[in-house]
Amino acid sequence: MARFTDKVALVTGAGSGLxxxxxxxxxxxxxxxxxxxxxxxxxxxxxxxxxxxxxxxRAYAADVSxxxxxxxxxxxxxxxxxxxxxxVNCAGVGAFVRSEEETFExxxxxxxxxxxxxxxxCRGVLPHMLDGGGVIVNxxxxxxxxxxxxxxxxxxxxxGVVNLTRALxxxxxxxxxxVNAIAPGGMNTPMIQTWGFxxxxxxxxxxxxxxxxxxxxxxxxxxxxxxxxxxxxxxxVGQIVSMDGGITCG
Length: 250
Ligand SMILES: NC(=O)c1ccc[n+]([C@@H]2O[C@H](COP(=O)([O-])OP(=O)(O)OC[C@H]3O[C@@H](n4cnc5c(N)ncnc54)[C@H](O)[C@@H]3O)[C@@H](O)[C@H]2O)c1
Prior knowledge:
Blueprint: E1 8-12, H1 17-28, E2 32-37, H2 40-52, E3 56-61, H3 67-81, E4 84-89, H4 104-129, E5 134-139, H5 152-172, E6 177-184, H6 190-194, H7 203-208, H8 218-229, E7 240-243
Helix pairs in contact: 1-2, 1-8, 3-4, 4-5
């Protein structure tokens, strides 16, 4: 039997990159997947691709940084597909900017999507998961475990996801809900292609945050997420699992 047969999985940011790869992987592992994204068209594309491969998926438009949107999409997905048992928080945004030039809007958006959005989705599914068990996998980043230049908001948001994950891991470990996070390094996704380093930035700054073995494919990180979310990861609680080409190892 496949890992996630008869399980309902919610994946945010599933219209692109890691979220799309994760939705596809969980569906191929037997889950019924709710494909959530701010970009409804992209969510529909992911769901259609999964269905055409014989998997089960349904697209939903959702803004994870908005309480009402989260509440509404979790309620709809639970009513359409059944009790959410898996949640993977992939939605994320960022930008490289000199901190002295950061704007309130950009700072608030990055914290709002990456940190508050991750919490709101956890908050939304927890009542369902407490009624029979569940697993949450958050997506942090190597940027949540180290300082990176030109990324103060992003580093702060991902550092927040790291300790949010530990806090929820401890709070719910004896109540049937496991919460963990992955911390990817550079991944070959649309996100990385849109971040230009600020003009005049030193090449060594970029080298310091890039593994000498290059980027991972999102499917590799999706495989790690699938393992953590499965029963094989039963004893993993509150962990931040790095797969980053060694960027944070020394
Ligand atoms: N790409 C990398 O190198 C890298 C490295 C480490 C961590 N990450 C993290 O991995 C996750 C996935 O990133 P990716 O590389 O696949 O990026 P991506 O840009 O390809 O995909 C992100 C998705 O999130 C969606 N999204 C943005 N704001 C949203 C919101 N408010 N509500 C719902 N959906 C929203 C976007 O529409 C998009 O489909 C992010 O959390 C990112 O921070 C990425």
